[in-house]
Amino acid sequence: MQIEIVSGLSIDEAELDISFIQAGGPGGQNVNKVATAAQLRFDVRQSLSLPNEVKVRLQALAGSRLTRDGVIVITARAHRTQERNRADAVQRLVALIRAASIRPVRRRPTRPGAAAKERRLEAKSQRAETKRDRGKPDLG
């Protein structure tokens, strides 16, 4: 089954490796008995679904969630059920890939206009005049 990221970009659900682990924190006996936290693993480098430019941006965006082997690890433990934690982990991965699929806009360097240059020179001369007035008065 395909997971739609944006139009024209989707990943195969078979590329996701989801396992369930015990969640930490408060919750009493339920937390100690049941493995409800979902741990999602997605191998970015081996993915056949993503173009190379998206892979590069995704690895940069993943930060500490990326292992040395190029695997993104997302752990979801906010909910009490496996299904909701699984859906949360997949949703977070989709949001990350969606952010990586947006091509950054290249900055075009611009030059200051004539009016801006004039304002800068005027401010410089004002500042120079202020500093000149601080000196000893010319009595001659």
Outline of the structure:
It is built from 4 helices and 5 strands.
Protein model, in words:
The chain is an alpha+beta fold. It has a single domain, classed as 2-Layer Sandwich (Double Stranded RNA Binding Domain), CATH 3.30.160.20. 39% of the residues lie in helices and 20% in strands. It contains 4 helices and 5 strands. Strands 3-4-5 form a 3-stranded antiparallel β-sheet. A two-stranded antiparallel sheet has the order 1-2. It starts with a strand and ends in a 7-residue tail after the last helix. The mean pLDDT is 89.
Q: Which whole number gives the mean pLDDT?
A: 89
CATH-level-2 architecture: 2-Layer Sandwich
Strand content: 15-25%
Rg, alpha carbons: 28 Å
- The CA-CA distance between the termini, in Å, is 92 Å
Query: How many E strands?
Result: 5
Number of helices: 4
Query: Quick one: CATH class?
Result: Alpha Beta
Main pleated sheet: 3 strands, antiparallel
How are helices and strands ordered from N to C?
EEEHEHEHH
Which term fits the overall shape?
Answer: elongated
Record the SSE blueprint:
Blueprint: E1 2-6, E2 9-12, E3 16-21, H1 29-33, E4 37-43, H2 52-62, E5 71-76, H3 82-100, H4 114-133
Antiparallel strand pairs: 1-2, 3-4, 4-5
Helix pairs in contact: 2-3
